[in-house]
Amino acid sequence: MSEWQLSETFRSTSGDVRWGHLGQPGRSPVVLLHGTPFSSYVWRAVARALARDYQVFVWDMPGYGASEKFAGQDVSLAAQGRIFTELLTHWGMEEPLVVAHDFGGAVSLRAHLLHGVRYRALALVDPVALAPWGSPFFRLVGSHSEVFEELPPALHRALVREYVSSASSPGLHPAVLDRLVQPWLGDPGQAAFYRQIAQADQLHTDEVQDQYGKIDLPTLVCWGQDDTWIPVAKGPELAARIPGARLETIAGAGHLVQEDAPAEFTAALVAFLQQVS
């Protein structure tokens, strides 16, 4: 697992972005977007499977994973949508296949609907897309982020571990949990963890929610059946708003579908991508 490294750097308007790619150049590009509080690491198994037939691009959003973190950094959904647009321009990529998880879903939707970015197809995986969103814990931390930033390191570590663990239905392997928690520890990780929660404003999805009916591209909505972060009932609601969208639910998976049911999820994703590419 330590071999998952992002070797490239893009200097965005919100800090250095670490990114990487797998698969042979010239093949159809697939871009994978992670959610919060995660990183591209959650895509490692799926990315390697897709790299057999596609060129796969992965990145850590500013303020996440291996990308830059600093005081005063704008890591909002609005900023991430702009940065994703910048990154696609940097890659010289037109109409990629896009797969987006959690708040990466909101990032991809904002880039498409507000910044005019075209995709060949879009797969939304347990996305942050419909109001209301944000658990009571998430809202509590967002309202008191400066207080939580001052937690002793041991208490902060325990809080983050418990929070990340709750995204999985069957439970995460201890080594995987350690890897997902590690970017949020120490300096500047602890402050960055609370910063990204404090900047998670539902207004950024309210701004685009009424435009989902304008989406005119093949779309897959995929949901973990046991998701306790965003209820599975949001899946058919979102699919109904996007013309022609297909809905897939993954049994035995929570919010982190990639970790909970990688084989079943990858099979559904590959079937979708083969139909549209």
TrEMBL record:
InterPro entries: AB_hydrolase_1 (IPR000073), AB_hydrolase_fold (IPR029058), Carboxylesterase_BioH (IPR050228), Epox_hydrolase-like (IPR000639). Pfam families: Abhydrolase_1. One of its GO terms (molecular function) is catalytic activity. Residues 29-262 form the AB hydrolase-1 domain. Signal peptide: none annotated. This is Oxidoreductase.
